Structure formats: C-alpha cells, structure tokens
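Comment thread on ticket #2218

A.B. wrote:
> Attaching the input chain for the structure job we discussed in standup.
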Amino acid sequence: MTNVLRMSKVYAPTLKEDPSDAELASHRLLLRAGMMRKNAAGLYSFLPLGMKVLKKCEAIVNEEMDDIGAEQILMPFVQPAEIWHESGRWDDYGPELARMTDRHGVEYCLGPTHEELITSIVRNELRSYKELPVYLYQTQVKFRDEIRPRFGLMRGREFLMKDGYSFHATQESLQKTYDETSEAYARMCDRMGLEWRAVEADSGQIGGKVTTEFMALAEYGEAEIVHCTCGYAADAEAGECICTVTQYERDGIEKISTPGVHTIEELAEFLDIPSTSCMKALSVKDPEGNITVFFIPGDHELNDIKANRVIPGFDFLTDEEMVEAGLFKGSMGPVGLPEGVRVIADSNLKDVAQWAVGANEDGFHYAGARLGVDFEVDGWADLCQVKPGDKCPECDKLLDGARGIEVSQVFQLGTKYSESMGAYFMDEDGTEKPFIMGCYGVGVSRSMAAVVEQHHDDLGIIWPLAVAPAHVCVIPLTVGDDLVQPAAEKLAEELAALGIEVAIDDRSERAGVKFADADLIGWPLQVVVGKRGLAEGNVEVKLRRTGEKRDVPLADVVGLLDFTGRVDFKSEAGFNAFDAIFE
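C.D. wrote:
> Ran it. Output below, let me know if you need it in another format.
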C-alpha cells in the first residue's frame, strides 16, 4: 500500500488543548492538528501533514504561473548588501531587514523580497528589446524581522512566498502581464477554496504606484477593507476617503472656555454637536525638525501612509516637544499657531466654512472659526483612513466594511529599480532605456493559514479537497483482527488505485481518539469500518464539511467515492465533490 498514507507511520502529534499563545483559529488548529510546531517567535517548522498542504498550495501557484508563461528559477536567500545600497533600500527598508556580516566583513541581508537581486541578474544578460518581455518567478523562504510576530503564519518572521518579476520594453506590455497575473491570482484563490476580493492597495516598501491586493475575507483578518456594490474595493490604508462633515454654522468665531476637554468626544459633548462637526489636530515634525499640524474630520483617524506622502519621514511630536513648540495637546487649532508651524488639512474639510477646533490655549476652543477669514490652510491632501459609511469614490454610494488576510499582491514597479541599478536595454530606435518592471507576490504559507481561517469549526479544520493532506481517511475501529482491518486495508487500496489520495488510521487507538483526530486534521471524507457495520455489509461515510453521515454498502463505496473523473482541481475549489453522496 505504497500510495496510502498510514497514520501509524506519520509524525503527526496532535494536541487536545489549545496552545496558550495561539489566538487565531489557523494558529490554534495547525498546531493542534500536528501540522506545524513553533520554534521561536514568528518561526515555525512544518510537519509531514502540514507539508502536504503547503506543497499543494505551492503546486497550485506554480501551475498558474507556468500557465501564463512565467519561468521558475531559484535565487539565494542571503543577498549582498551592495545591491541594496544601489537601490537605496539598505537604509530605507528599516529594522525589518535582517542584516549580517560574514567572516570577511562583507555585509549581507536575509531576503525579505528579491527586487534587487533579480534586477542585478538580468541587467547583465538582457540587452535588446527583442528579448523582452521576460517573466521569472521563484517560490522560496523569506525573512522579515517583524517587531511583533503574531497570529502564527499570518505575521511570522520567516514565511514561504512566491515572488515573480517581469521586464518589459513598454507600459502596454507590462499592463498585459499585470492583468494576466491578476487573473491567475484570482484562479489561485478559487482553487484553494478562498472567498476573496481584489482591493486597491498601497505599495509599501516595494514601490510603484499601481498595485492590487488579493484579500481572503476573514472575521479576524489583520487588514480592514472597504467595498461597494458597484465593485469598488480597497484596503482601508489605501482607499480614498470621501466622508461627510456636518456644517457647524455660527454668526462668527467665538472663544469658549472648555475646562477638562481634550478629546473630540469630549468637545462634541461639551458643545452639543456631532463629532463630525469637530476637527481633530495632530502635530508632527519632518526629518529637519519643521513642525506641521494636520487637521482631519473629528470622526476619522489619520492615515500614516497618506500622511507620509505629504511629509516623508515624519514623526509625531512628543508631549515635551509640543510644550517646547508652544502647542497644547487637546487644544490645537489653526487660529494663532506659533510662527513657522504649517497647517495641512484633509481635503474633506475644504468646503467647511466654519470649524470647531482648539484655540491653542489650554482649556479653550474656538467655535465657528472661519476658513479664509480667521485662518488659512497651507495645503490640502487626502489624509484620513477610509472606513465603512464613507462614500464610494466611484459611485458615491456608502461603503461597507470587512476584514481580510492579504494572500497575494501585484505591483507595477515602473523603472524604480532598473534606473537606480543601471538595468538598461537597447530599444528598437537605438536608444538605451531602463526596463519597465512588474512584481508579483503570493504568500504561500499565509494562504494555507487563510484557508483554515475560512474553513474550520469547533472540532477542527475543514480542508477543501484541492489542498487537503488526503481526500479520504479510512478509519478501522479494530486493528490487528481478521475482519475489520483487512476490509479497511482492501478499501483503502481500491480507492488509491483510482487516484484518490487516501489515509488509513491504522493506529491502535480508541475509536473516540481516531474520530476526534479525523475531525481535527480535517480529512474531507471519513470512511468508518467497524464490526457492527460489516455484519450488515455496510461502512459509515461522513462528510467533514457538514458532519452528515450515511451507511453505504461496502461493495458500493469505491464507485460512490470515485470523483476523479468529475472534479477538475484547476477550475473548482473541490468542496462539493462528495456532496452527491448525501443528496
């Protein structure tokens, strides 16, 4: 029975209790099901059953990449610092980049991503537009020194990732590959059984202006997303914020004593107005020490990513720095700010004639401060984090909210890396031009965790067929006898001969232990073979997804379970292959 997975031989140490530090379902269940083990903060080993799932996720990714013409390579995990200095990211990437020095004093880093390395490879080889486009990818371990690794595979320091890179002579060529990859990523999500959305996103440390994230929807996903019935969707950190600010009109500006009032909620209650009529102030400094006060609608939060585009490298002022600058925490406003302090306001406030804001004096606020009369604004920008209830930028309807897990992302890098690293080709007009680049990433191990987040219950994991460690688990209730185990072994062999992936729980364990482990591990279909059933010529078949059970004649089981001619794992998630048994 070489094609049958024997649980008596598999290293799969299951746990009865939840690990104390595991919060998310995927973290808890992958540990309890004996699929992985924690070695240190953010570092995990994949055990045999976990490796089977991980390899299936990886195979789906590789198949889809190969189908659109990408070519697989493998680059080193350790990268020379020299190329990161060329791109300018050695200093810009921050502490997440794990740096090291070898015995000769040469600096290296543990690769968090491979834009620099792939560019350094092709710049000496690709010389003509006739050789383009070129699309290369790898699936490899990455390392990012997360400040707070948590949630198991969701926010680990080491993770398995597919990263692809394309090189083009024209923007049209890049767009074609970008679109084809986006379609491939959609198919990857479908094949893994994920419910997902493609959302507008921020490019972060990777760079480029055009990017899309593929989010697996999950109640406890780390990312907030907004979406609309028109089809628009965005990561809350990247989406444009169009919100409603309630006009607060008065005859003129009035300075009001507001003792003990320091928050928007306190000010709104004190003035008996909605928080949407108040303006929130946040003081920051740029790397040269110049001070700016951001003003945003009172019911919203400042989006640090957007703010960083306005003032690159900004830091919030500490309480001590605010005092030194003549600013009052909880009472800042645009009227009478100290000389040299700039005012940048959110674009949603542009049409608000009168503001309820701090008076730049502790314990006082202004009501009815008039834009253009009592104060001026030095600049306008989209500064707020978008949230449910804001307006859709495409159709003006109100946005809904959800949470998601980023499983993949596509980027149009443009010439960011090719220009900085001297990667040029000869175009058909005889001039040298920098490559136009695309970058495409899939979190393979994170996708595995996302599947568990979406597909589990109180008993354990519920794997879609396409990524399950095996399709069917045969469970003999008696081991070592001359009736039950032989029947179970024969059934397992016949199913495996059809091409069905089969496990057999041939351990000398109590029935209750086997049932609990089968549900915990998440075999899509369980076939229970016992003396009582065999006495009537039957076995019990259980569909893990629904918990439904049915007695089936032993002679009919193989024909009933043969889905190999009905299910194409390239086009469907594979949850429903066994459903016909229970119709």
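A.B. wrote:
> Thanks. Noting for the ticket: The mean pLDDT is 93.
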